[in-house]
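REQUEST FORM: STRUCTURE PREDICTION
Request ID: SP-0412
Submitted by: Lab K.M.
Chain count: 1
Length (residues): 200
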Amino acid sequence: MTEPTRPRLVLASASPARLATLRAAGCTPEVIVSEVDESRVEASKAADVALELAERKAADVAARVSNAVVVGCDSVLELDGQVHGKPASAEEAVARWRRMRGCTGVLHTGHCVLDTTTGRRAAGTGSTSVEFADVTDAEIDAYVASGEPLRVAGAFTIDGLGGAFVRRIEGDPHNVVGLSLPLLRDLLAELGMRWTDLWS
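STATUS: Completed
RESULT:
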């Protein structure tokens, strides 16, 4: 009896954290970065922005590959009703952290899975509440000087230097890193795929 063929998994993201999350979970995806202009978004609510970008990224890459399961993701931070992606400058990152400290925001990550063989898709958004520590100006300056906040949505990480500045989260920690494994498993199930079939 032959073993079922493992689906070709493609990650439509340049994020090292998303790739590391999938690899740690037993998957070995190909990485094909989307060419989507993230500044052109029609949605206004944070969760919808994340989902729209994830869907557009997955669709962009799916149009360039065949016989693949394409996973697109995008994350934004919602703070006081405002939507925040990657800060455009160090000055913006400093100003944002001065607003974030001692406050609680919600990190939304949109997920879209496209099966290029069948044309079917499944999508959803994971949301995790994040409580930030009351960090000092000196800590903010040092963190921004490290460059890390400029590379990530919301200007923080929980799996890097920024982890010490996150006091508490409610929800899936993987979602804050940029890819919710439980949500991805559910979306794959919607398309008739088993999560374990993606294991390397």
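NOTES: The chain is about 30% helix and 25% strand.
Reviewed by: T.R.
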